Amino acid sequence: MQYAFVSGLAAWRLGTLSTSRIAPIYVTSMESSARGRQARTGRGPSQKRQTSGDARNGAPSGSLPHRGVRRPPSSSSFGDDTPPRRRVRTDETLEASISASMKSLPSKELHIPEGDGIKFESLPIHPLTMRAIKEVFKYETCSPVQERTLPIILKGKDVLAKARTGTGKTIAFMLPVIETLVEHPRIGPDRVSIRALILSPTRELAYQIEAEAKKLLTFHNLTTACFVGGVGINKDIARLKSRVDILVATPGRMEDHIKNTDGFKNRLGGVHYLVLDEGDHLMDQGFKPAIDRIILCLPKVRRSLCFSATVPQGLSEVLGSALRYDHVTVDCTEGDGLGDTHDATKVRQGVATVDLENVNVSVCTVIAAEMMNNPEEYKIIVFLPTARQAQFFAELLNAWLSAPTSPVGRNHPEVLEIHSRKSMSNRTKTSDQFRSAKRAVLVSSDVSARGVDYPDVSFVLQVGAPSSREQYVHRLGRTGRAGKAGRGLLMLHDFERFFFDNVKSLPMDKTVGDEVPQALARFPEALATVPDALDRVEQQTKEQTYQAWLGFYNSSLKSLRWDKEDLVLKAAEMASLQLGLDEPPALMAKTVGMMGLKGVPGLRIAGRNESFGGGSARGRGNNSGQGGRGGGGGGGGRGRSQHGGRN
């Protein structure tokens, strides 16, 4: 049995624990829970005065003062019996003491071995929560991540949990949040403060977290709300007229409310719990500055948790202010079979390279083969680098599969698409539809690459080079989950061979890569029917795809070993061979400038030449070469321009 040491020195130096609690604390995966509730609520004689206020506000009595809920601010709406000046001085004294004496201490790493499985009923949780776990979730035993984290979190510790997606981590952090709020109900006039804040990197994950929270709260009288971008902010404001106990939000929408919604910042003064979910992804999305500013609006005394697969430098800096100095790190990724290379090893995968001329037909035939190989049950996700490319392939697949010449016949579901260009309500509906389907194809940008859990995904196709090895693994991780088999195929353009160096250490299965030429051989008629389907893809979609393609590869010039002229020439080739356009669409001068492509030969600038139309690339051209509504226009024939569309 392995043990891990957690120092009691921090508590001793603050004078908040009796000498009997200075002794080292040893934690094992099967530690008895007999002290559970008493340990979180008990109070010794010497601690009475120090802890009574904290106990009222959500801090476990008899334990080290932590970032639990701060005593309410001096506003009449949030007052209590303690004079405001004294309250502020107490918090400042605590923080100064922590900063001066313990700032340099690292967190203690815990490695808790898996036992035979901890049953939820052995944990000190509320009977109504237990009822939801049994009756709604129908769970009896904790997942490995829950087993390793819940006993620690329920003791009142701030925790950094290294955990992957799809491991049950939502319950691992949401259950302690609910327990804290249930045990410490609102006091006096404090009827409007937000009591728990969960930050999510994506809208889809935020909605998923709230859905899990609502299930856990089935038999409790606690409320949730979810604030994300893509939804009118007035809807949030209307929701704030009622009580919000648990708020799940994206950092961008949180900042919007803090800056612009009257009274919102004050309502954060009652936060008991802060949770950062998918911490590394929050950093990937560039949310570090926003999170830093959000934390400044929260009480200094609160409970905090972070769940993240990895801990990049930016996240480490955030955790310095988010978590207590003596927080515990629980590594749930070692040997979990779901980590970076472990996850990739678990899934059959392969790589194939195709040229631009054959990308469309390769994608269509590979998808058709997968559908026909498993006609009764298939769930396929196709990942593209950009939202517009996802839109393009969704339209192309729907046009091809719904045609009279479709190899799969008419009895197949519509191809779904989900990406940032869709409204939030549409994305939620699509996500739910795909999640519950037995047969479905979902074309997605990276909004579905991590965090969102889709059960029973049988095949993941990645078209184009992912932004990194990590992104490749996260996408691949949508399949082969919960012990089920899965398969993944990476389809690289011929100029993206460099990316293979990022994944060559993974066990690539040549037979999976061979599925591309096999599918083409299986459906030879696709060489004629896919171009026919391409004609039915919206012109506007093609033009937007061209612009998105140009922007995406503009950020990878070093890896591609291209200069700006190479990029523009390859984009023109893509417009002709993949999009079926007569010439590259015209771009707004502002767009060209923002891409750093001003003056690069081969680009068409809207409004610079009458024959190219006078609108932006967002519109649709007509056969006379005139620009449509906001459109860049397009020539009437099929042939390519001799000058490549140069100005």
UniProtKB/TrEMBL annotation:
Stated family: Belongs to the DEAD box helicase family.
Record domain DEAD-box RNA helicase Q: where: 118-147
PROSITE patterns xref list: HELICASE_ATP_BIND_1 (PS51192), HELICASE_CTER (PS51194), Q_MOTIF (PS51195)
Gly residues bias: start-end ranges: 612-639
Signal peptide interval: none
Domain notes: The Q motif is unique to and characteristic of the DEAD box family of RNA helicases and controls ATP binding and hydrolysis.
Species, as recorded: Porphyridium purpureum (Red alga)
Entry-linked PANTHER family: RNA HELICASE
Enzyme class of the recorded protein, top EC level: hydrolase
General function of this protein: RNA helicase.
Lineage of the organism: Eukaryota, Rhodophyta, Bangiophyceae, Porphyridiales, Porphyridiaceae
Catalytic activity field: ATP + H2O = ADP + phosphate + H(+)
UniProt KW Transmembrane helix keyword: no
EC number: 3.6.4.13
Domain Helicase C-terminal span(s) in chain numbering: 366-524
GO MF annotation list: ATP binding; hydrolase activity; RNA binding; RNA helicase activity
CDD domains xrefs: SF2_C_DEAD
Statement: the UniProt record of this protein carries the keyword tRNA processing: no
Region (Disordered): 31-94, 608-647
Protein name: ATP-dependent RNA helicase
SMART domains in alphabetical order: DEXDc, HELICc
InterPro entries per the UniProt record, alphabetical: DEAD/DEAH_box_helicase_dom, Helicase_ATP-bd, Helicase_C-like, P-loop_NTPase, RNA_helicase_DEAD_Q_motif
Pfam families, sorted: DEAD (PF00270), Helicase_C (PF00271)
Residue numbers covered by motif Q motif: 118-147
Helicase ATP-binding domain boundaries: 150-329
Keywords: ATP-binding, Helicase, Hydrolase, Nucleotide-binding, RNA-binding
